[in-house]
Amino acid sequence: MRKQFQRIICIAVIALTLSGCQQAPEKDVIVSKNDGTFDATKANSAVETHAPDEVQIVAVDDVFFSTDGSVEFQMKFEETVSMVDMPIVRVEPHPLTVQDAKNVAYALFGDNTFYEVEPSDAPVYSKDEIQKKLLRWAPFGGSDGIAGEFIANVVDKFIIEYTLLLETAPIENPHKPCEWAYKSETYYYYSEAVASTMNTDDDNDQIRAKTTEGDIPYLYTVSTRNKSDFKLNNIYARPYDGSSPATIDYSIFRSELCRTNKPDEETLTELKEKAALLLEQMNLGDWQIDECYVEEVYNNDIAEYIVHINAVPVFRGVVALRRPQLNNLTSNEAYASNYYLTNATFQFSANGDLVYFELYSPVDVKDVVNPNVSMLSMDELIARAEEYFVHSDYYEYGFGDVIDIVDEDLSCTVNVDSIKYGLTRVKVPNAADSFYYLPAVSFEGNAVYYGVDSGNTYYSGDESNTLLILNAVDGSVINITNE
Prior knowledge:
Helix content: 10-25%
Low-confidence stretches: 1-30
Largest sheet: 10 strands, antiparallel
Number of helices: 7
């Protein structure tokens, strides 16, 4: 085992003083934004190799200002980052097959029976299913309903409607076994007679199935799309039993699952192990859990605990960076992607019951373009980041156009409090269906906007967000959104 390599980087940047009216920068930001033309095949290979446990300590303590004086940056952090060999891999969207749909369904729900979901405009229920709905909703209706007058009125209307349906509902199970076949999503909204008259050319293809785990009904949805405008391969699972008054079913099911003792560290470890095993059974690539936290919500003053566990893909043993999910998949910008970022999300109760699941955009590795690519040093990347920040302004950090309607001058402080080092995704030039995962560093932090004269705080980003991502090969900025 090679000895761990540690190096402390301390970068001093002369602070630009905040003074009166400063001129705009004479040149554009030196680090230009990624324009979708990065050619990974021309990247040089690194001369040296690194042990799997090799790390580097990156420490920065610096204060500086944007050129226009609108932002004070406080860049203060000390991070230990992995120095493994960083690859560039080329990937393509993985079309979700029927077998994939089955694999994920049975990983989540075991050998449960799955039924086809009827169209939304023509639901079918047995007498037993309707009776369960009526019992579930009854405490919320009437003059003494526990959720207020408005909800009670809505519930009462549903109870009347479903009581009438009860008279003609079949005693036996009316649901067909899941067909495990894709069809245009319109057929899940409208009866076949109506859907067959509609244009479904722009539809996603879907499989929708329902099952029951314990006493909780679940909806399981697989969506796929391979069209010129954008691509989709997404999977969802959540408690659901059709339409309910003011969507109260979700709150009822969540309460049944999540009114537990607060999960301790041992429980969180067990749930992370469970999520990792489920991802392995799904056989949709390699994953690593990178986030785990407990959400505490209150329903009628009673605490409910939801354990969130998120995972990102792994390529050649290197973890992808977590970054904001993409928006506007139909953007025409050169750098824009038409495929959501790969991500997996679990929500569990403390007892391990599934509260929610989604998996976005699995990919297939098509080529390892470079197993150990040459990169800029960490001090060069931090200098590039500071250069970018210096040339930015206070419109970029979370308060946006609201700045212009505040009735006083504002100042902004951006706290850059951590960095992350790993792989991130960019487009392959001139290839709508191919992407590179390449080494990158993200700068995390938050912003506070306050009045210059009053000192009032108008906006404060409490959580740490991704402020900037740099391509570690050439130092270019990787756009966080598609805008």
